[in-house]
């Protein structure tokens, strides 16, 4: 019965909400009537007009009055057309038309709206784009529907582009309807109390809606609480809306335990914002404007129990009228509804349920604080004249808000000359600097004769005997808090009583003591400066300013806009056009968003992902992928769905000769005794794996074989049977054929990867269309792949051309990615190509058709050949299953290299032949027919191998990377992969160094105690980063395998089969213009640290094997390209076998131990002759056996060496690519997303 009742309540709630939504939709459906056609002439205003016949009142749609529309003067720098709708209206659409029978029209424009005609806000679509598409001729009407309606009285059309062969011409119409408004004005000391009919009110469901407007960033809008611990509080905090909600949990009653759900940003902009709260039991939807948060409440209960009353506008203190616990709301509320009750209407009609505290009025009379926007970080400024001060000196006050960490706020020239005062933001803090001469400023020190009041309010007195030192200049301490957080900050600057004081946000002031009274000279420059005295003070301020006072006199910015006061450049008046680019947060996988005025960036540290929006996983997708890049068995983190929603999980990769097993541990590995188990009462155990259920499913689905085993004392049982292998491949043999899948879910980000082989010169790999948007990847020519798309900013084409043909019937890899920051394309091992997205363009890719693979909707330019392993956002597409039911397409692909088994190892590439296959090992540090034989070289202390990176390719690559990179920490594309094995007994020793033309370097050394040290020197003005991942002695004569992988600031190190260890670098800078890589002794003078230099001079004595740096294999290059200008060899260099050498060294250590024990036994037991005789016999036998073993080992070693030499010659003779210089520089490996085995 209880379940049925809850179900009925749930159905009733859904029905009620649907009816409410339906009514709202019906209202909006009818809200499309014309609002401009009947307006009088006085409702139209403009910035200027060419003549009377071009006046603003002629700008009605389809009218031919006057000159047939509005046109501004040619000299008008900021033209606009304004319409007064005479009262608040709900606007749903606008339409434009050119001037009648002319060449004058507007092709794009901005739309601003305002309640009073003073403070304006720019309308933006849901995707953040502010421009509207205008006209292409003078007669056609172009209507733009608003994605979210606005309620306003004034509209302003601001032309941005027009007919280049004519001029601006505009006729307009606005569509919408009137609406009923209930308004209340709160002055910051008032509130409305809604009192219940009973002692307390308990509700399972609540619906609260309101609209508000305020110029303050703090204030309580709603509050209620109950004695059992329930509470609800809605308040503005730092311009965001915070909701505190708790159900029946007294522990969270006090503010220290409260957790807020925050929505919105910049809500103190004096414009209307809508709020809607829906709660059913513990589920809550909080919507502010178009942004919604879904969450579950704290506490144990399902109902909200509030005692006595709900307060709106503040939290009054019981028994103390006019006293409030928190800062009250200061602004206007409109259409305030609580569970269907119109609170403002009840208050206006003085109903007894409503009690008014303070002065609440029922109209919105809040003052409109007019702001201006500084648009350019290089050329914006506002110059205002100074007014005479009656008390001497001068004073300046203003408010500002910005996201930028640097910018000039104020520049004032002073008298007596040549002193000047500078107020600027630097590194997010506020600095005030007094320059007393033409020389550069100096920091406050004991040599300056000043008294300095620091920000905390303490006073530090510093004196000196020579007053002339004041001429070097003085700099105050910065403010203690960041001022680039997007909030309004007030600044007050005063010079009086031989003192300059700076006050920020009403906190204790900072001061500079003066020797003489200073006066202002000339104009005051805000935000920037055009004169030669201050042009070097860049960047200019980008942000908003308002309430500017000079010598306590307010400055009318309208006069500045009309040219009647001062001068300006690159300013937008009557609006603060600030945007929060981190709302919504477009950083994926928990990336942290930060922003400047014009862009945002993502900090991906600690997320396991990288890229401009934290889209790409830094981990491989499987154990098979780790094996393909040369890793051995061990613990690894894998990300089974790549860039998909699933996070990384830790597994053990057991890499055997034939298969790769992925082992996931659980929490029940200890033996469990089972007693009394039967069919009726079975013994039940729960296993908690190290991965989630979704991650387990993804890993299992990508595996060829799955086993879950339980070991009994009496038998071994398999719970799951082996499933058949599925290799996602399809062959297309008709140009009109294609496979279709559901529409791509790729609005904000998508990555597409696949392999293909073909003999056709062109063809479309995949295509998905929308109404106007599209995305397409195709083979555009025999040697070029093209990635194209359109998100509403016009078609974007990104092409990658290969120096080798791509229609050679061999497998080729393609990866295309697009997000709101950039697009990229990779083909095989060629360097990635990047293209940045426009900062204010459309971010969303809106698709509606099916996804076509291997063809297009028009059945033209279809692909002929094979496609396999198609993956989009980490999701693999089952091509084979879809191909079974599609004409012209067959499952699978013919050829040896199409199977799921790894025929070529360690980054080797499988190449089809007419009667078989060969492995191209040119990108691998290994050799042999299947790239599985290590390439090893023995060094002595004078030996070295130096690989020189080819010039112009390396220069071009890095310049290209620099040009396309974003200057933010999180979007760095810095990446290195280093892997090698070594055997040595020397310490200290130099293993590997990489140096650049910019004095950067990487060094891997063994320290004096034999421990491994990794040195990264990425920024020459800082000390290098040093990491010691292994403190034990690695100079022990045993074989050790090292793998180093860097992405940005994150460094991952694996030694032998240990788990990866993560370190954090101090910088994510890239290696710019790599010069050389050296193994062994370094003879060139470098700017190495002293410890690195010591190891470099000692060189390396031992064996190095399978050395790989990114896609360069220097040891292999040294052996196969002797005489090449890329490789320099110094000292003796002998091909060897590190594994055999380590085994030989191990035997030698054992021999030494046996000999030492023999000597000890002989000296310690000289009196026991029988034991001595026995020991002598045993020693002789052991000695003979060791000698025989050494001889056999030497013969086997020589035979194996001869085989290796023959193998290398055979490999060189049959190499597909003979020019190793080009192949060594190919960038980014081909990583097969292979099927694998799973335990």
Automatic annotation (TrEMBL):
Pfam families linked to this entry: EGF (PF00008), F5_F8_type_C (PF00754), Laminin_G_2 (PF02210)
Family matches, as SMART domains: EGF (SM00181), FA58C (SM00231), LamG (SM00282)
Transmembrane segments: 1171-1197
Residue ranges of domain Fibrinogen C-terminal in the record: 614-666
Gene Ontology CC annotations of this record: membrane
Stretch forming the signal peptide: 1-18
Segments forming domain F5/8 type C: 26-177
Topological category with respect to the lipid bilayer: Single-pass type I membrane protein
Main location: membrane
Keyword Coiled coil: no
InterPro entries to which the protein is assigned, alphabetical: ConA-like_dom_sf, EGF, FA58C, Fibrinogen-like_C, Fibrinogen_a/b/g_C_1, Fibrinogen_a/b/g_C_dom, Galactose-bd-like_sf, Laminin_G
Protein's cellular compartments: Membrane
Domain Laminin G: 183-364, 371-576, 728-893, 952-1138
Positions of the EGF-like domain: 578-615, 894-932
Annotated keywords: Disulfide bond, EGF-like domain, Membrane, Repeat, Signal, Transmembrane, Transmembrane helix
Domain of life: Eukaryota
CDD domains referenced in this protein's UniProt entry, alphabetically: EGF_CA (cd00054), FA58C (cd00057), LamG (cd00110)
Cystine bridges: 866-893
Annotated family: Belongs to the neurexin family.
Official protein name in the record: Contactin associated protein-like 5a
Organism: Dicentrarchus labrax (European seabass)
């Amino acid at each position: 019965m209880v379940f049925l009742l809850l179900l009925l309540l749930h159905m009733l709630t859904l029905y009620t909400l649907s009816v409410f939504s339906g009514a709202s939709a019906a209202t909006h459906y009818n809200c499309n009537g014309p609002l401009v056609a009947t307006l009088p002439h006085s409702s139209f205003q403009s910035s200027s007009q060419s003549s009377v016949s071009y006046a603003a009142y002629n700008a009605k749609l389809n009218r031919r009055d006057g000159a047939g529309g509005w046109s501004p003067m040619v000299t008008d720098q900021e033209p606009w057309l304004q319409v007064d709708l005479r009262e608040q209206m709900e606007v749903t659409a606008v339409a434009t038309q050119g001037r009648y029978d002319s060449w004058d029209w507007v092709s794009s424009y901005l739309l601003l709206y305002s309640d009073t005609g003073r403070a304006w806000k720019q309308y933006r679509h849901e995707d953040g784009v502010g421009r509207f598409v205008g006209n292409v001729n003078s007669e056609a009407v172009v209507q733009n529907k608003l994605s979210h309606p606005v309620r306003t009285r004034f509209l302003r059309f601001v032309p941005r582009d027009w007919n280049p062969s004519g001029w601006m011409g505009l006729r307009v119409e606005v569509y919408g309807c009137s609406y009923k408004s209930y308004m209340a004005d709160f002055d910051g000391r008032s509130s409305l109390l809604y009192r219940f009919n009973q002692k307390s009110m308990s509700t399972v469901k609540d619906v609260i809606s309101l609209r508000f407007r305020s110029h303050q960033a703090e204030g309580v809008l709603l509050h209620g609480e109950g004695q059992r611990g329930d509470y609800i509080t809605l308040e503005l905090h730092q311009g965001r809306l915070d909701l505190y909600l708790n159900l029946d949990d007294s522990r969270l009653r006090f503010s220290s335990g409260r957790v807020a759900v925050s929505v919105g940003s910049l809500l103190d902009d004096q414009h209307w914002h809508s709020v809607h709260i829906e709660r059913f039991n513990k589920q809550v939807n909080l919507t502010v404007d178009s942004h919604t948060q879904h969450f579950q409440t704290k506490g144990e209960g399902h109902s909200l129990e509030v005692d006595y009353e709900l307060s709106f506008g503040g939290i009054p203190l019981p028994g103390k009228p006019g006293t409030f616990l928190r800062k009250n709301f200061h602004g206007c509320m409109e259409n305030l509804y609580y569970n269907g009750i119109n609170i403002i209407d009840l208050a206006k009609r003085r109903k007894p349920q409503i009690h008014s505290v303070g002065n609440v009025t029922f109209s919105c009379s809040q003052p409109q604080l007019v702001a201006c926007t500084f648009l350019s970080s290089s050329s914006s400024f506002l110059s205002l004249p100074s007014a005479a001060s009656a008390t001497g000196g001068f004073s300046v006050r203003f408010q500002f808000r910005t996201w930028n960490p640097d910018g000039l706020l104020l520049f004032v020239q002073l008298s007596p000359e040549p002193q000047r005062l500078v107020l600027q933001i630097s590194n997010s803090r506020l600095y005030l600097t007094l320059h007393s001469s033409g020389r550069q400023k100096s920091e406050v020190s004991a040599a300056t004769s000043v008294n300095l009041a620091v920000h905390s309010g303490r006073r530090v007195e510093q004196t000196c005997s020579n007053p002339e030192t004041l001429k070097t200049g003085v700099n105050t301490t910065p403010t203690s808090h960041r001022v680039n957080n997007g909030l309004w900050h007030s600044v007050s600057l005063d010079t009086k009583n031989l003192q300059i004081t700076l006050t920020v946000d009403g906190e204790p002031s900072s001061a500079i003591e003066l020797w003489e009274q200073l006066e202002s000279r000339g104009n005051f420059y805000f935000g920037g400066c055009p004169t030669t005295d201050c042009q070097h003070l860049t960047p200019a301020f980008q942000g908003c300013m308002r309430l500017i006072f000079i010598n306590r006199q307010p400055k009318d910015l309208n006069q500045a806009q009309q040219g009647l006061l001062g001068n300006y450049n690159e300013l937008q008046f009557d609006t603060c056009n600030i945007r929060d680019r981190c709302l919504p947060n477009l950083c994926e996988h928990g990336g942290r968003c930060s922003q400047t005025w014009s862009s945002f960036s993502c900090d991906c540290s600690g997320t396991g992902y990288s890229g401009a929006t934290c889209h790409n996983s830094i981990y491989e997708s499987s154990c098979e992928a780790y094996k393909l890049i040369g890793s051995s068995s061990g613990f690894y983190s894998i990300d089974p769905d790549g860039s998909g929603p699933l996070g990384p999980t830790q597994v053990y990769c057991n890499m055997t000769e034939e298969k790769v097993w992925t082992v996931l541990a659980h929490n029940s590995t200890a033996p469990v005794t089972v007693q009394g188990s039967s069919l009726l009462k079975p013994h039940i155990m729960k296993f908690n794996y190290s991965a989630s259920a979704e991650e387990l499913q993804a890993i299992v689905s990508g595996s060829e074989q799955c086993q879950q085993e339980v070991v009994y004392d009496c038998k071994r049982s398999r719970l799951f049977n082996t499933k058949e292998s599925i290799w996602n491949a399809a062959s297309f043999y008709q140009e009109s054929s294609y496979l279709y899948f559901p529409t791509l879910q790729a609005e904000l980000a998508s990555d597409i990867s696949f392999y293909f082989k073909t003999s056709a010169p062109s063809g479309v790999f995949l295509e998905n269309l929308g109404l106007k948007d599209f995305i397409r990847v195709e083979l555009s020519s025999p040697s070029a792949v093209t990635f194209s798309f359109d998100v509403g900013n016009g078609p974007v084409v990104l092409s990658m051309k290969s120096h080798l043909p791509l229609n050679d019937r061999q497998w080729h890899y393609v990866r295309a990615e697009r997000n709101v920051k950039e697009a990229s394309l990779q083909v095989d091992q060629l360097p990635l190509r990047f293209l940045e997205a426009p900062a204010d363009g459309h971010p969303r890719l809106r698709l509606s058709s099916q996804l076509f693979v291997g063809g297009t909707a028009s059945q033209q330019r279809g692909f002929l050949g094979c496609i396999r392993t198609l993956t989009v956002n980490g999701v693999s597409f089952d091509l084979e299953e879809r191909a079974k039911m599609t004409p012209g397409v067959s499952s699978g692909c013919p050829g040896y290299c199409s199977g799921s088994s790894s025929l070529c190892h360690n980054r080797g590439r499988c190449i089809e032949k007419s009667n078989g296959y060969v492995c191209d090992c040119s990108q691998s540090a290994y050799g042999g027919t299947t790239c599985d034989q290590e390439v090893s070289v023995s060094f002595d202390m004078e030996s070295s191998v130096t690989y020189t990176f080819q010039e112009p390719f390396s220069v071009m690559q890095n310049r290209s990377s620099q040009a396309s990179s974003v200057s933010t920490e999180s979007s760095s594309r810095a990446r290195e992969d280093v892997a090698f094995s070594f055997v040595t007994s020397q310490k200290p020793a130099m293993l590997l160094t990489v140096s650049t033309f910019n004095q950067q370097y990487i060094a891997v050394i063994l320290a004096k105690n034999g421990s491994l040290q990794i040195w990264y020197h990425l920024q020459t003005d800082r000390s290098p980063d040093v990491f010691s991942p292994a403190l034990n002695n690695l100079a022990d004569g045993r074989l050790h395998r090292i793998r180093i992988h860097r992405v940005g600031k994150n460094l991952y190190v694996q030694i032998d089969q240990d788990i990866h260890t993560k370190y954090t670098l101090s910088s994510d800078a890239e290696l710019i213009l790599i010069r050389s890589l050296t193994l062994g002794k370094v003879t060139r003078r470098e700017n190495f640290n002293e410890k690195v230099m010591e190891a470099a001079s000692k060189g390396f004595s031992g064996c190095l094997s399978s050395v790989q740096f990114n896609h360069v294999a220097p040891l292999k290059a040294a052996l196969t390209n002797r005489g090449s200008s890329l490789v320099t060899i110094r000292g003796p260099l002998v091909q060897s076998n590190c594994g055999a050498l380590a085994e030989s060294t191990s035997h030698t250590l054992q021999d030494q131990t046996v000999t030492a024990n023999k000597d000890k036994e002989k000296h310690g037991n000289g009196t026991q002759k029988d034991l001595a005789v026995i020991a002598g016999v045993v020693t002789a036998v052991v000695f003979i056996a060791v000698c025989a073993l050494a001889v056999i080992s030497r013969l086997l070693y020589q035979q194996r060496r001869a085989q290796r030499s023959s193998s290398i010659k055979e490999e060189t003779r049959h190499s597909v690519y003979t020019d190793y210089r080009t192949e060594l520089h190919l960038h980014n490996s081909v990583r097969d997303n292979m099927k694998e085995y799973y335990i």
